[in-house]
Amino acid sequence: MTAERSAGRGKEAWAVTGLGAVASLGTHPGDLWARLVDGATGVGPIDLFDPAAPAPNQACEVRGFDAARYLGPRGLRGIDRSGRLALVAAGLALQQLPAPLDPLETGVVLGTGFGSVHSIAAFDRASLQEGPSYVNPADFPNTTINAAASQVGIRWGLKGLNCTVSSGFCAGLDAFGCATGYLEAGLCRAALVGGVEELCLESLLGFFHSGLLALPDGEPAPARPFDRRRRGAVLGEGACMSVVEPESRAVSAGRPVLARILAYGSAHSGGCGPDSRAMARSMALALERAGLLPRDVDLVVAGASGAPEGDREEALALLKVFGAGGGRARICAPKGALGECYGSAGALCVLVAVLALETGVVPPTAGFEETDLGLSRVSGSAVTGELNLALVHAFGCDGRSSALVLEASQTR
Amino acid sequence: MDDLEGEIRQLIAEIVEMEPENLSPEADFIKDLGLDSLRALEVLAALERRYRIQIPQERLLELTSLRRVVQVTREVLAQAQGAA
Asked: Tell me, what's the ipTM?
């Protein structure tokens, strides 16, 4: 580590010390990672509901998800799918810690795009069909976007600040930006940070009619991030939570550091649509704040989903920041395997970065074979190598872009 | 046990996450079953929806056990039928 590289950092790096995830590829970071590296995808026909044609009958669904298996049969009534996904991911992250956190000083920062648009729709439907006097008051809390974050605080007894970040496609990554800011400001001493998004008919129809989703030719097929044959995203769902705390605190408490968070950056185009210039600004800002140069980065975990325009803009931004061909960094786009998980996508991409830095393996980009976007180092198959620095990028069709820089643990 | 009591037992058991046969008619919702204020309101809303009645606010505090709920519901139903 050169003095020049560490010069731009804050006083302390933030350590990721716990990981929990529920996604179509697996309910456990270890299972999910093994299948991701193996080249598996979570895409398949939808079991949860019947998507009315012409909407696509394919998604990266958490099939057979049963929260009671992890949380016990009682206390789940009135908690919707978003809440349950978040509770299980949070529980897995906390259970991984060899030494527990102090609940009084531990916050929750959760990203979500919709909260549960399904719960909101169901509440409205009951009000219209049964009459406003007959709605179930217990269904009302689920119509708030911070329901899942609150449930995590209640269930796991976390009494520090409790905050929901709703910034669309970037929410799961922006949660890390907010949380590290809160930690820096001393508002909490540790935080459970991540994102959640559930699959439901309402969001499938919304994304479909917005023109974001690929239509299968017959059998469900994964999206093709960065590939010349990309035709749209496949909707996904899941929750992913990380325990984030000051590195010195983790070390003194005996919680092993899985990876270090160095810096976050974010930008907006000021207009609509994915925008390579805003993306390049957020990436450059995160690198500058980390005191790094683009050539220091070994791995980019990209937000490309297979949507033609968004992938093109992200590729342009990578070419702009990292140079011809995308520079020396390997590029992996997990949405090929996990689907477009919207508000939880950024948090799942952080998990991919942490596990890649820990294991030295870049997972394949499912569905990717050949690109027309000028990127020469997109991972078509798993690649092993020395990985020290990773940049995670998320962007949305609302002009937003966020980036997070992570470094491998020094004690691995 | 008549139909009304059976129905209400089922409805409350679901809300308090118990098997209906384990729900004692005398068990106090708050002290014995750990019902919180939101779940208590859920019981009320479920009764109103099921029987298309409005239970007056002043009677809320009476809804402390299965037996009391059945009694109040019966009275409100009778009043509603008498008024119709």
From this structure: 0.74
